[in-house]
């Protein structure tokens, strides 16, 4: 039962974070951020979001910028989901490099 609620909240947070990053990156030409996965802790107090950044060369720079503005992102998230959630979870961001990993494997398979 608890796991179902965690999954619903994770999907809600993923959707809302995607919208927030989409609106913020409109000003940054040539950069696209997508939220690939969200995980919520069992007590619903921590949300771990995995971000995919294009172009991937700027991933560390973008992640540092997002982490520095974490309170602003959490506040904006809170204004969007305040009617669905009582407590807005603490946010943690990580780069999801699975697409780069897949591209690397494809390159190795083509060479071999």
TrEMBL record:
Entry superkingdom = Bacteria
Which cell locations does it reside in?
A: Cytoplasm
Please state the protein's primary subcellular location: cytoplasm
Keywords, alphabetical: Cytoplasm, Ribosome biogenesis
Report whether Signal shows up as a keyword of the record: no
InterPro entries documented for this protein: KH_dom-like_a/b, RbfA, RbfA_dom_sf
Which Pfam family, an example, fits this chain?
RBFA
Gene3D superfamilies found in the cross-reference section: 3.30.300.20
Q: What does this protein do?
A: One of several proteins that assist in the late maturation steps of the functional core of the 30S ribosomal subunit. Associates with free 30S ribosomal subunits (but not with 30S subunits that are part of 70S ribosomes or polysomes). Required for efficient processing of 16S rRNA. May interact with the 5'-terminal helix region of 16S rRNA.
What binding partners and quaternary form does the record give? Monomer. Binds 30S ribosomal subunits, but not 50S ribosomal subunits or 70S ribosomes.
**Stated family:** Belongs to the RbfA family.
PANTHER family to which the protein is assigned, alphabetical: RIBOSOME-BINDING FACTOR A, CHLOROPLASTIC-RELATED
Its name, as the record gives it, is Ribosome-binding factor A
Q: Which organism is it from?
A: Xylanibacter caecicola
**Gene encoding the protein:** rbfA
């Amino acid at each position: 039962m608890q796991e179902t609620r965690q999954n619903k909240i994770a999907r809600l947070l993923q959707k809302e974070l995607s919208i927030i990053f989409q609106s913020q990156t409109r000003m940054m030409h040539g950069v696209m951020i997508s939220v690939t996965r969200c995980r919520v802790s069992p007590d619903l107090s921590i949300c771990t979001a995995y971000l995919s950044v294009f172009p991937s060369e700027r991933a560390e720079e973008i992640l540092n910028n997002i982490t520095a503005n974490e309170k602003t992102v959490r506040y904006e998230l809170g204004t969007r989901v305040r009617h669905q959630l009582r407590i807005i979870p603490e946010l943690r961001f990580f780069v999801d490099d699975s697409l780069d990993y897949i591209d690397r494997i494809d390159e190795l398979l083509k060479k071999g």
